[in-house]
Design goal:
The complex is a heterodimer. By secondary structure, chain A is an alpha/beta fold. Chain A has helices at 29-42, 62-68, 71-76, 88-101, 113-124; strands at 7-11, 17-21, 48-53, 77-83, 107-110. In chain A, helix 1 packs parallel to helix 2. The longest helix of chain A has 14 residues, at 29-42. Chain A is globular, with a radius of gyration of 13 Å. Chain B is an alpha+beta fold. Helix content of chain B is 51%, strand content 17%. Chain B is built from ten helices and ten strands. Chain B has helices at 19-33, 49-99, 136-139, 142-156, 196-248, 252-279, 282-286, 289-303, 321-341, 379-390, and strands spanning 103-108, 113-117, 162-169, 173-182, 187-194, 307-312, 346-353, 357-364, 394-399, 405-412. Chain B has a five-stranded antiparallel beta sheet with strand order 2-1-5-4-3, sandwiched between helices. Chain B has a five-stranded mixed beta sheet with strand order 6-7-8-10-9, covered by helices on one side. In chain B, helix 5 (196-248) packs across helix 10 (379-390). The relative contact order of chain B is 0.05. Classes of the chains: A alpha/beta, B alpha+beta.
Chain lengths: 125, 428
């Protein structure tokens, strides 16, 4: 399971790439590049759905946020489920990503991981 | 249906925040408002509404900073590209300027020199310190300054290039060609080329052509005289001898053969006479230009199957023999061209005189030609042009494909005619 300083990343048995941001981890632009590159490596060369768990993450800086929504995401992944905390802050973080960063693939916020996985599997085709 | 966070029943907002958190929030917010845009509002581990508000504000400030930084990057990139383009253009323009031998001057409309380019400063009439910031009238000889000022004014009125030819007393008198164009609202660009060498080459070429023509005429005259004074006389003597033998012949058969021989000798004498006349029309000297042209037109009608109408005005009898000869040659060449190229059998030749010029005109209504293709024309037209140039006259050719040809020659009455040909040596 490839780990980075700020995330734990693996390919699930459902064929999803799962990125779990570590508890209270602050992600710089370099961290964002490392995490996305590692997630891309986990796809094994196929476009796959991506589950990112930011429930315990610290807010992103603008640079990191824009990197996470750039062309690398579009090229490597077919859909993105963001797993957020149901608190006002968690929803704010998710919505900020959804509406400001505007990722170029189908993206949805979830508070329930099981439903997030179900939604991603539908996109897996 | 996806379980969107926004659709999860949100807990009721809590506004019961600790005073120290609110105080820290407000203090940071004030500092951010004061310009410390790198600051971020504190976010606790509670992830409550205050944290959400803080995050929202942090995101807004972060996005503004990010957008500002990106805009600055783009601006800097554009500026760098512009600087590179300007540097590249300067290198290219510098190379072009170094390669161009011409002088260039940027002038204001009032004739003030504001900039210049000279690959070799020795080509300048005066050093730059003596003309930059000064007006043409303060730098150039007065007549030339007026000529140039007039050209500047004309250039201001048109998009065309105004060309001025002039000479300047440098280390020797040198000829220049200035091409003046507008270069912006109130500026003009004058590109000046030293055409001294090319002008000298043209004059040398013309002088050589003139000498060749003169030498050709002398040689023709010599051959014509040989034919007339020697060959014709000997044929005449031969004929007299034949007639004498014929009168002494006994048999009719011998007399008949001698008559035939005598007739052949007369034919040869006639041919030699015509050749001699064609080489040098002696009538020019004895009867003058009009009579010689009349004879030429008559001969052309007969020998070349042309109908040549000749008319003339009053021509001075004191006309220089060489001028007459050159005009005669021009008509001779023109009628040759009519017979050979025009595809018609009619032509008009006229020679008249006004107060200042003798005007010679040869007109046909044949197939004509394109004067713009005259560079490829034969020696005939070139020879006409050179003869007219020697006479300091003007040659006008009015022709168009299918529209006939009209050749008009103006020769000034005061012209003294070509000077005797100097020897053609290897050095000339």
């Amino acid at each position: 399971m490839p780990d980075t300083k700020t995330a734990v990343i693996h390919l699930s048995h459902d064929g999803l790439v799962v990125v779990r941001i570590r508890d209270a981890a602050y992600q710089s632009l370099d961290d964002a590049k490392t995490n996305l590159a590692t997630a891309l490596a986990a796809t094994a060369g196929r476009r796959r759905p991506l589950l990112v768990d930011i429930r315990t993450a610290q807010p992103l800086d603008a640079e990191a946020r824009h990197h996470y929504s750039g062309q690398t995401l579009v090229d490597g992944f077919m859909a993105l489920a963001l797993l957020v905390d149901s608190s006002p802050f968690g929803r704010m973080m998710g919505n900020v990503y959804l509406h400001i960063a505007r990722p170029g693939i189908p993206t949805q916020l979830f508070t329930d991981e099981r439903r997030a996985v179900e939604w991603l599997i539908k996109h897996r085709g | 249906m996806a379980d969107q966070a926004s659709r999860v029943t949100a807990p009721a907002p809590e506004f019961n925040f600790a005073t120290d958190r609110v105080a820290a929030f407000l203090r940071t917010l004030e500092n951010m408002a004061a310009g410390q845009i790198d600051l971020r509002l504190p976010i606790s581990s509670r992830h409550d509404s205050l944290d959400a508000i803080a995050h929202a504000i942090n995101v807004l400030v972060g996005e503004l900073s990010w957008a500002g930084a990106r805009a600055k990057e783009v601006q800097e990139q554009k500026e760098a590209e512009l600087r590179a383009a300007v540097a590249s253009a300067e290198v290219r323009n510098g190379a072009i300027l170094r390669a161009i031998p011409d002088l260039m001057f940027v002038l204001l409309r009032d004739g003030t020199y504001v900039d210049y380019h000279a690959r070799d400063p020795k080509m300048l009439f005066v050093p730059p310190s003596e003309f930059i910031g000064k007006k043409m009238r303060d730098v150039l000889p007065p007549p030339l300054a007026e000529q140039m000022m007039d050209a500047l004014e004309r250039a201001c009125q048109t998009d065309d290039v105004i060309v001025v030819d002039y000479e300047l007393p440098m280390d020797e008198s040198r000829a220049f060609e200035a091409r003046i164009v507008q270069a912006g609202a109130d500026r003009l660009l004058s590109i000046v080329r030293d055409v001294t060498e090319s002008k000298r080459a043209t004059e040398l070429n013309r002088d050589l052509a003139r000498r060749l023509i003169v030498r050709q005429e002398i040689e023709r005259q010599r051959i014509a005289r040989e034919l007339h004074d020697d060959v014709s006389q000997r044929i005449a003597l031969l004929n007299i001898e034949i007639d004498k033998i014929k009168s002494e012949a006994v048999s009719e058969e011998s007399r008949a053969r001698l008559r035939t021989l005598s007739a052949q000798a007369r034919d040869i004498a006639n041919d030699v006479h015509h050749i001699s006349y064609g080489l040098h029309p002696s009538w020019l000297e004895t009867l003058g230009l009009v009579a010689a042209l009349q004879s030429l037109c008559r001969d052309a009608s007969r020998q070349r199957n042309l109908q040549v109408v000749f008319r003339h005005g009053s021509i001075p009898t004191s006309l220089d023999a060489n001028i007459s000869l050159y005009l005669y040659r021009i008509v001779q060449e023109a009628l040759h061209n009519v017979a050979r190229h025009s595809h018609v059998r009619e032509a008009q030749v006229s020679v008249t005189c006004d107060e200042r010029h003798i005007v010679l005109q040869i007109v046909d209504s044949g197939v004509g030609f394109d004067p713009s293709q005259m560079r490829s024309a034969g020696l005939g037209l070139a020879s006409m042009r050179e003869r007219v140039a020697v006479l300091k006259g003007q040659l006008a050719i009015n022709a168009a494909p299918g529209g006939g040809t009209q050749i008009t020659v103006y020769v000034p009455l005061g012209c003294e005619g070509p000077s005797p040909a100097p020897p053609l040596t290897a050095s000339t």
